[in-house]
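Milestone M4 deliverable, item 7.
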Amino acid sequence: MHLHLHLQTAVQQDYLSVFHAFDEQLFRKLAPPYPRLKLLRFDGSEVGDVVEVELQTGIKAFRWTSLITEREITDKAAWFVDEGQEVPPPLRSWRHKHLVTQHGSGAIIHDIIDYGTGYKALDVLLYPFMLAAFGMRGPVYKKVFQQL
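Output delivered:
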């Protein structure tokens, strides 16, 4: 069982400029205030790259390692996918597609997340927290990708 979350944010820059800006600097800006993220490794967004963070809850630290498993650029969209290799409890599976689509002279950034804990009730309980954590990205995207 997995839950699916799809958030969309319209921004003012073209999709390729936005896509190519998914770097370590943007990753740091997108980090939620809690739990604090300590970035241990950031290879980038090419297939085979690894991103590793430590989630610092104040009580215990949890390691989260993701592997980039897909990356593609077409004439209207670009995306890469990170899949959790080591995820913090209660998660058991994690797949996050970072999709940027052309939209007029601007773009739409899609955060498409599939996650699972192995327990349907727990997946549902986590949903509002996932929505809140990734919903905070919208204003950051809008600020970063204002009109050039």
